[in-house]
């Protein structure tokens, strides 16, 4: 039984991760961290998990967690994952990072799109992009997996067979994506209030969405040629992001 810790487990990503891991036969979740929800029971914040977990959220204290778990899921915001991932990885643990901090292979591209320096370039080189349809063998051997973003997952999987089979042109690829509001997280933001979202449908991040270089990186790897895409995400008035 693999002992698992989830760092940053009070958001929508953490909730879904807890739900999925509950039914994994070889996993035991031993710790879930959250700074804002520390001291609360998991089922107090997520009632749908009542009866499944007897855990409280705890602050992220890396040294203590290191003694408890073998596998770490990082569901922290972009930028916040960098140091924690590096710490657990260098300690010999297995790490799956759900932020964007280890998805982009080129730290310069990461800085251009996320506005942050990548402080752990050596660890970044060891990360494997976690899309099994493309990198299954590498993922099996990896100790650090960078979980793909939502839009890139849908775009890459849709384009992969067409590009691999040479049945579409590699120039002028248009990706027109839709998502629900949970993709924006649980933060309070006027843009995601009911009155702003309901009965609405709008594009956002036009020609500037951070998932663009992630899509281009993986598509370019498929066909061994640098590719640019025209990617436009849209927000739907539904929950699931």
Report on this model:
- This protein is an alpha/beta fold and 241 residues long.
- The chain has 2 domains: 2-148, Rossmann fold (3-Layer(aba) Sandwich), CATH 3.40.50.720; 151-235, Dihydrodipicolinate Reductase, domain 2, CATH 3.30.360.
- 35% of the residues lie in helices and 18% in strands.
- The chain is built from 10 helices and 10 strands.
- The chain has helices at 12-22, 42-45, 62-68, 81-90, 107-114, 121-124, 132-141, 150-164, 194-197, 212-223, and strands spanning 2-7, 27-33, 57-58, 71-74, 94-97, 128-129, 144-146, 173-179, 202-203, 229-235.
- The chain has a 7-stranded parallel β-sheet, with helices on both faces. A 3-stranded mixed β-sheet has the order 8-10-9, covered by helices on one side.
- β4 (71-74), α4 and β5 (94-97) form a beta-alpha-beta unit.
- The radius of gyration is 19 Å and the shape is globular.
- 32% of the residues are buried.
Quick rundown:
Helix content is 35%, strand content 18%. The protein is of the alpha/beta class.
The total strand number stands at: 10
CATH architecture descriptor text of the largest domain:
3-Layer(aba) Sandwich
Biggest sheet character: 7 strands, parallel
Mean pLDDT across all residues, rounded?
95
Beta-strand fraction estimate: 15-25%
Order of neighbouring strands in the sheet with most strands: 3-2-1-4-5-7-6
Shape: globular
Given this structure, which CATH class of the largest domain is correct?
Alpha Beta
